[in-house]
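FAQ: What does the model actually see?

It sees only this:
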Amino acid sequence: MKMTGENSSGNSEITMDDVRNLIKKKDEIEEQIKAYYDVLEDQGVGVETPLVDAEGFPRADVNLYQIRTARHNISCLQNDHKAIMVEIEEALHKLHAREKAKREQDEAEAQAEAMEQQVTLPPAFARVDAVTQGSPACGAGLRVGDEVIEFGSVNTQNFQNLQNIAAVVQHSEGKPLRVTVTRDGQKVQMSLTPQRWPGRGLLGCNIVPIHR
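And it is asked to produce this:
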């Protein structure tokens, strides 16, 4: 029973459904083998039991044709069973190899994307070294350690000192500012609205310049 059809033509064509179908065929073969063994058991003989009497004549107490047919079918089905077990093993191997290759490809693409993003990110000009709980900065998602590459109209190209940021904050009270930071090598954008709150200032965070 050779099953070298579409399932064996390439790794890309192997699916879990293919494996399930092979397992189903294996189970069917095992059921057929069991049925033929039951035939032998009903006749009171096994696979190797002699079918001649002590004098060398064919036994008259059993159905010789039925026994020989059952033995022949058992032998053929056992060969089929071995073949399909090999197919199942190969199919599982191909399936696992393809899943591993896809996983590795996804990881490589994610790593390449992260590296590309790191390369294209402009250098930060300031770092957040404190964020007060419940403040506008905290609510916007700003975290300690975030490195600022854009704060409203202030960016890497035009930043001179912290007064630039202070001026933008003073002129933007109650208005959302686009803030872009780098966090763990990734670019993160958020909307920060300077406003009065129970704490100090309009932001509730402390930003320090990065000297390069």
